[in-house]
Amino acid sequence: ANSNELDLSAAIVGNKKQFVIYVSEANSLECIPIISHELIHLVQYNRGRLQIVSPTDVLWEGTRINVNDYSYEDRPWEKEAYEKEVGLSQKIKSKLY
Q: Which residues pair with 78 in a beta bridge?
């Protein structure tokens, strides 16, 4: 599925010093994996591995990529975020519950 077919669950707005993660309406247990996923993107941004160049282009580890060339789930930064969100979600849940 491409990003136009997905319901947007979360978005990050901000700059190098301050970010806001917006999450669509969800209960607290549903929010933890969503926020975990977005936090992994923040790490990618902070380390310079993922940079937004334009609405359609990013730099991923130094390579310019048009996001429309990949389905959402095949974008390398999304694959990494989905892989790592599980472990981060478990850590957050263990601290909260």
A: none
